[in-house]
């Protein structure tokens, strides 16, 4: 086991996304997962039925105790729900100096809102300047950038726009676009790179965003460079989708226990 990841996110009672997916992903890739739970959700593969926020003082205590004892080599944030939670998390992380993967969780796979619209400006103002990489999907990127993203050219432009918010890297996920190939755009100050992979036709994609961000965090915690962490994380998510167990009536979970050949990282460079 190498690399410590502190995950700050909401719990998914169905186990397919949120803290549960994060822990499984980090563990599968050989890193250690610690957590600070921001909210409890009652949900299944068909949708979110209820959300119960964690008191902010308790949330900050979870973060402080984890950092002061076990420590962290990377931090991953997921569902933060509202402006007060974002402020609490940023206050707790102030000065920690640890790489941060920010997954701007705004809407659940089933359509339930997971971030209050009024919190978007707080997310941009407080969290993004602390982040090492931002990992939005297309709907999230449209909200954060204020522009429509109908194709790959727009994805490239949007990723560059998001860099101006103070985050040094953006991985803009293109899974919401139609077509046989999924294209993700990685933008940094060094330029823009497009990663492509065949689309896997399946309804079992619950938690793909959480899984990808946590897999990137595991890679960074283990000392991988950003690009290599992204490459390995994409390979892991694709493998987990392909071997999904088929559970649930709606958007089913991935197989987070799937293993990825370390040699794959070298082959995909």
Taken as a percent bin, the fraction of beta residues is 15-25%
Order of helices and strands: EHEEHEHEHEHHEEEHHH
How much is the average pLDDT?
92
Number of DSSP strand runs: 9
* Uncertain ranges: none
Major sheet: 6 strands, mixed
Helix content: 25-40%
Largest sheet strand order: 3-2-1-4-5-6
Question: What is the overall silhouette?
Answer: globular
Instruction: Write down the Rg.
Output: 17 Å
Instruction: Note the total helix count.
Output: 9
Q: Between the first and last Cα atoms, what is the distance in angstroms?
A: 24 Å
Structural class: alpha/beta
What does this structure look like?
The protein has helices spanning about 20-30, 55-70, 85-95, 120-125, 140-145, 150-165, 210-220, 225-240, 265, and strands at about 5-10, 30-45, 45-55, 75, 100, 135, 170, 180-190, 190-200. The protein starts with a strand and ends with a helix. The protein has about 270 residues and is of the alpha/beta class. A six-stranded mixed β-sheet has the order 3-2-1-4-5-6. The longest helix is centred in the C-terminal third of the chain and has 17 residues, at about 225-240. The protein is built from nine helices and nine strands. A hairpin with a 2-residue loop joins strand 2 (about 30-45) and strand 3. The model has no long low-confidence stretch (mean pLDDT about 90). The chain is globular and about 45 Å long. The protein is about 35% helix and about 20% strand.
